[in-house]
From TrEMBL:
The keyword Disulfide bond does not apply. It comes from Phytoactinopolyspora halotolerans. Keywords: Signal. Residues 131-487 form the PcRGLX/YetA-like central beta-sandwich domain. Pfam families: PcRGLX_1st, PcRGLX_2nd, PcRGLX_3rd. Residues 493-903 form the PcRGLX/YetA-like C-terminal alpha/alpha toroid domain. This is Tat pathway signal sequence domain protein.
Length: 905
């Protein structure tokens, strides 16, 4: 892989943080068709129900129906009891008529806790402790009203210092990486490790208050002779907060064969000013159980300092004056060892260990073991300290929390995203190619392992991972109850969400979902089947341990009934990598149900599939990798995996800037067709990529490009004008094709953003519409007034499941015959738009009465069998496959929304 310049990386990775810091105001001058001058209300609640006792703030998105919100509309937030709550608002997306489609809002950390809120037109309340940002040539200083954070624009530190009042609580926050140049596979390991630390190259203020501020820090990990692992860190601050939220993104810029990550973490210093016996360590394990120790313990000694003294130390309180202790203890305090180093290592999803030692050069003493640690700890004393946490701590093992030198004037804390106690991160391809040197050999091997192999293509160069951390600057050692609540916040950050009915009424995401409905026996059956499928995958994730740094968030593709395991080691049957849109199945399942467990499962998948399964730098930037034993292993690098349609829902519900980056990266993704032909192995005849006549398929290729262009356009991103031109140009020229979206081969002109005129032909691949084409077409038709494009899409919808005779009569050729159950949502869409019950009846016929044995039937046995003979006890349903699950789920959801009135009972 070629090296990539820093400038190119920054441009491709973060773009311009589309829409992040722009207030709603007259700068966006388009006028919405708002008749009564008042925006509608939106009712909001916490995703998990009750608000957290730890105020952290929250950011969320709210959709608005076309024409109901003017660009200069202000919003006020109030609790369900009617009290004004400070909020900050900004636009996320616009309808083509200029009215606001999505707004984002932020809640202050010290805002009044309420179970529900109401967002409506009005003047926003001012926060009691506003966030302020001061920027000069050398640094950025953010004040939350409680803490002050200084970010230098150059140097090794991501954060220079964090203070609370006059006290510096933390300093020198840096990224640390242990780089290893080879992996020793033998008994005698001799590999050398070299430490690299962050080198900050650019700092950008993306938002500056008054409720929320965001600072983006970019750079590389740097050491003697090597800069690598470019990173983007976002620092989030909320009004009244005593914490900093850190979003840590890095890109792996190595071929995976010659240098390896042996450790990756965030490190900082904590000034220690209290007496040794007034300094404390806390690690929260499973639940709210925790390790509570002092650096110099005075409990358990041969001589008793006094009950009140011992109780104070265990509770983390300042000890009484030593003159009040038993002198047999105070005279011998210097003989009690100070334990300066602690570590909690989570090397698997099932177990962690805790150990401590007095100082470097001396032996570690085991403390205890446990199952799944929270990822939260504290170091400091009665005068203050730092609470620190890593989200998905056990799910993304191997992880570690390290405290060193707490007996000195400055403790060092490292939150390891990859623990140095684990073997180095092994990114080597898993086999030697087995002689697959030609396309013919590779296609033949595909027939047995379903793996599309090609030498040199199984590289991780350019994949990425984003992790979420939190640092609290505290004025004292927290009590146990508060520590437990902070650990809960690390595990599951509080998230404000919309009511389901508001999402439906706003008619976003194509209007392809409706609230869960059990009003008839058949609808109840379908709802039960949908519940079974999600619950089954959630259980499989835990029972089959679909966890690990690179793996968490993905699910497996197919099951091996003979071994009673998912086919984790069989070529293209292993990790799913978004095959046939499970991302969309999960997100549409959430939109209609509001279930927190579905949201969190989909969130983890979005974090994984958008980062790990996609290339972010290098010649394949913007392409994703087809399903494989390793997420980056398959040689099929395609837009159908990286498509923005899989990220849009999470982005708009949360206003997450990193997800916005991922979608912005794809705006020029058509350029990858100049360097890699996705169908190179099966293309007939000679073909040389020509930017003015580029082969781009109308199914999986165009749908992915259209999703990226449309998202950039509606977000008014830096390339919005070009994106609008390409969206409208391709829609218009598709409409001009003889068979519309069912037309065969065509060519694209990158200079004009249009398809070239095409002769009549027919192409209806069974996969063409199953990677987001259905969903993006629904959004485009709903948003853009171009009847001729709808007329080019509806024949595809009407005819895919029609008879071959009907297809030939209208199109002059035949479409695909596979995945009919998944395609029933196109029949339902045709009914929804045309009103012809023929299509609704056919949708339900093919959905309820599948024609193949691997499609699901509503009347089948929806159950799993307990299997005690697998390595761990598991629930097994050998008939479940992820391809079928995703298509069945999407068809059920969309058919109910679009043609539920025609469901036979």
């Amino acid at each position: 892989m070629p090296d990539l310049s820093r400038r190119t990386f920054v441009q491709s990775m973060v773009g311009a943080s589309v829409g992040a810091a722009v207030p709603i105001g007259p700068a966006f001058a388009a006028q919405a068709a708002n008749q009564d001058g008042a925006a509608p209300e939106a009712r909001l609640h916490w995703l998990e129900g009750d608000p957290s006792p730890i105020g952290t703030g929250s950011t969320w998105g709210v959709p608005w129906a076309r024409g109901t919100v003017d660009p200069d509309q202000q919003f006020a937030l109030r609790s369900s009891g009617g009290d004004a709550v400070p909020t900050q608002s900004w636009p996320l997306a616009y309808w083509p008529d200029g009215s606001v489609k999505w707004t984002a809002h932020a809640l202050a950390a010290d805002a009044q806790a309420a179970e529900e809120y109401v967002l409506a037109a009005g003047e926003p309340a001012e926060p009691a402790n506003a966030v302020t940002v001061q920027e000069n040539r050398g640094r950025v200083v953010v004040e939350t009203g409680v803490i002050s954070c200084t970010v230098n624009k150059r140097g090794p530190y991501v954060i220079r210092s964090i203070s609370r009042g006059e006290r510096e609580i933390a300093r020198h926050v840096e990224l640390v990486n242990l780089r290893q140049q080879k992996i020793d596979d033998g008994d005698e390991a001799r590999a050398d490790r070299r430490k690299l630390v962050s080198k900050v190259e650019e700092v950008t203020v993306e938002q500056s208050g008054p409720v929320r501020a965001v600072v983006r820090v970019e750079g590389v990990h740097s050491g003697p002779g090597r800069d690598w692992l470019p990173f983007t860190i976002r620092l989030y601050f909320y009004a009244g907060a005593e914490h900093v939220r850190i979003m840590h993104t890095f890109v792996f810029d190595s071929d995976g064969n010659e240098e390896f990550i042996a450790g990756l973490g965030v490190r900082f210093q904590v000034p220690m000013v209290d007496e040794l016996y007034d300094r404390h360590i806390r690690f929260v394990g499973e639940g709210h159980g925790m390790l509570t120790e002092a650096i110099q313990p005075i409990t358990g000694m041969r001589r008793d300092p006094g009950r009140n003294v011992r109780a104070a130390q265990v509770d983390g309180k300042r000890l009484p004056d030593p003159s009040t202790w038993d002198t047999r203890v105070t005279d011998r305090l210097h003989w009690i060892p100070a334990w300066g180093d602690y570590r909690l290592s989570q090397l698997s999803s099932e177990g962690f260990t805790v150990a401590k030692r007095t100082t470097s050069g001396h032996g570690w003493v085991p403390i205890d073991q446990g199952g799944r640690a929270s990822g939260f700890g504290y170091v400091g004393g009665v005068s203050g300290g730092v609470g620190f946490g890593l989200r998905d701590f056990w799910q993304r093992h191997p992880t570690q929390l390290d405290v060193r030198d707490a007996q000195t004037d400055s403790a060092e804390v490292t939150v390891w995203l990859w623990s140095p106690e684990a073997p180095p991160m092994d990114t080597r391809f898993y086999h030697d190619g087995m002689g697959q040197d030609t396309y013919d050999e590779q296609l033949d091997a595909l027939e047995i392992t379903y793996e599309d192999y090609e030498p040199g293509f199984g590289t991780p160069y350019g994949i990425a991972r984003t992790s979420e951390l939190m640092l609290w600057a505290l004025d004292a050692t927290p009590e146990a109850e508060r520590l437990g609540a902070m650990a809960d916040v690390v595990r599951t950050p509080p998230q404000i969400v919309n009511e389901v009915q508001h999402l439906v009424d706003a008619n976003v995401f194509g209007g392809l979902f409706a609230p869960v409905d059990r009003s008839t026996p058949m609808k109840a059956k379908i709802e039960d089947s949908l519940d079974f499928l999600f619950d089954f995958y959630a259980k499989q994730q835990d029972q089959r341990h679909w966890y690990g740094f690179w793996d968490y968030g993905d699910i497996m593709h197919s099951f091996d009934e003979d071994r009673s395991v998912w086919r984790y080691d069989v070529g293209g049957y292993a990790w799913d990598n978004s095959e046939l849109s499970p991302d969309l199945w999960l997100w549409y399942s959430y939109l209609r149900s509001g279930r927190a467990d579905i949201f969190r499962f989909a969130e983890a998948m979005t974090r994984h599939t958008g980062e790990v399964d996609v290339y972010h730098i290098g010649e394949w930037a913007g392409l994703g990798t087809r399903h494989n034993v390793q997420h980056w292993g398959d040689s099929a690098k395609q837009l159908r995996i990286s498509t923005a349609i899989y990220r849009r829902i999470f982005y708009y519900l949360t206003a997450d800037e990193r997800t916005g980056d991922l979608m912005h990266e794809l705006v020029d993704a058509e350029e990858t067709f100049l360097v890699l032909d996705p169908i190179r192995k099966i293309r007939e005849g000679e073909y040389e990529p020509d930017p003015r006549a580029l082969a781009i398929g109308l199914g999986t290729d165009w749908s992915a490009l259209a999703a990226a262009w449309f998202t950039e356009w509606e977000r008014r991103g830096p390339q919005a004008s070009a994106a609008e031109r390409k969206v409208l140009g391709t829609m218009r020229t598709i409409a001009a094709m003889p068979n519309g979206l069912a037309n065969g081969g065509t060519l694209y002109n990158m200079e004009t953003g249009e398809f070239l005129p095409a002769e009549a032909s027919v192409s209806g691949s069974s996969l063409g519409a199953m990677f987001g084409l259905v969903e993006i077409c629904a959004e485009l038709i709903d948003a853009i007034d171009m009847p001729e494009f709808e007329a080019a899409w509806l024949p595809y919808c009407r005819l895919y499941n029609a008879s071959r005779e009907e297809q030939e009569a209208e199109l002059g050729g035949r479409l695909g015959t596979n995945l009919r159950q998944g395609h029933t949502r196109m029949d339902a869409y045709a009914y929804h738009r045309l009103g012809d019950a023929t299509y609704a009846d056919r949708a339900w016929d093919f959905f309820l009465h599948p024609r193949t044995g691997w499609e699901y039937s509503v009347d089948q046995d929806w159950s799993a069998q307990r299997n005690e003979d697998t390595l761990n006890p598991t629930d097994t349903a050998a008939w479940v496959s992820t391809n079928t699950t995703a298509l069945y789920g999407l068809a059920a959801i969309q058919n109910l929304a679009l043609a539920g009135d025609r469901l036979p009972d």
